[in-house]
Amino acid sequence: MSKTPTMRIDRLLANLGYGSRREIEHLADSDRVVLDGRPVTDVSARIALTPDVPARMTLDGERLDPLPGLILALHKPLGVTCSHKETGALVFDLLPPRWRHRDPALSTVGRLDKDTSGLLLLTDDGALLHRIIAPKAQVAKRYRVALARPLKGNEAALFGAGGLMLESDDKPLLPAEFEPLSDRAGLLTLHEGRYHQVRRMFASIGNHVETLHRDRIGALSLPDDLGPGQWRILDDADIARLFAAVDSP
């Protein structure tokens, strides 16, 4: 049986973005850090990193943020960039400001470009991130596509056959599923993630994507009640849905 890891309280709070270790010490000196109903008097004390820590510890009366191992579903709005460094509106601006200072850091699981909306995952769990984006995992991602020109009727067969070569790529695409919704719209499900792949696929057959929205990853759908810019923490059942299509026999 593996031993539960422990960490100094000041280091834990600093890693969660609440301030430097010196700042955490000052917060504790003001009785603002409470554990199990009692003010913390020694921030150098170690605490077992069990799942119940956020429920047992408060800062300024608010329960602690989730421990590392956090994964979020965010409804990415249009006009927001998946980056830490670029100018303009960033997805990380939609989260609590202190989360920019978490260690390990939160990262997006893949990217949605500035002109694409929909389901975006963020996590500080590197192993989970790589499991989702690994090419061999082929986690399905579904997009709602609105097009500038009418469909020709052969898109499902063409994309489903695989083998389509995109400009500047050196290997053909994997098969993808396309379901028409109208003469200028449809659902496209990919099992890989190349640069601007959906837009390039339709451009290669003489069409242009006007709007693009990702509504599903694996079997996890973007919740109907999660508006643009909103996010929620995923639980184990949600994470299992990400791999449902891959893990099912």
Task: Write up this protein.
- With 249 residues, the protein is α+β, with helices and mostly antiparallel strands.
- The chain folds into 3 domains: 6-63, RNA-binding S4 domain (Structural Genomics Hypothetical 15.5 Kd Protein In mrcA-pckA Intergenic Region, Chain A); 71-133 and 226-247, Pseudouridine synthase I, catalytic domain, N-terminal subdomain (Alpha-Beta Plaits, 2-Layer Sandwich), CATH 3.30.70.580; 140-217, 2-Layer Sandwich (Alpha-Beta Plaits), CATH 3.30.70.
- Helix content is 21%, strand content 26%.
- It has 8 helices and 15 strands.
- It has helices at 9-15, 21-29, 53-56, 126-133, 155-160, 197-204, 236-242, 244-247; strands at 6-8, 33-35, 38-39, 46-48, 57-59, 62-63, 71-76, 107-108, 116-123, 141-147, 177-182, 185-190, 209-217, 220-221, 231-233.
- Strands 7, 8, 9, 10, 11, 12, 13, 14 and 15 form a 9-stranded mixed sheet that branches. A 4-stranded antiparallel sheet has the order 3-2-5-6. A two-stranded antiparallel sheet has the order 1-4.
- Strand 2 (33-35) and strand 3 form a beta hairpin.
- The mean pLDDT is 94.
CATH C-level class of the largest domain: Alpha Beta
* Count of folded domains: 3
Principal-axes geometry comes out as elongated
Number of helices: 8
Uncertain residue segments: none
User: SS-based structural class?
Assistant: alpha+beta
CATH superfamily of the largest domain: Pseudouridine synthase I, catalytic domain, N-terminal subdomain
The portion of residues assigned to helices is 10-25%
Query: Proportion of β residues?
Result: 25-35%
The H-and-E topology, N to C, reads as: EHHEEEHEEEEEHEHEEHEEEHH
Number-wise, the strands total: 15
Please tell me the overall pLDDT: 94
User: End-to-end distance, in Å?
Assistant: 30 Å
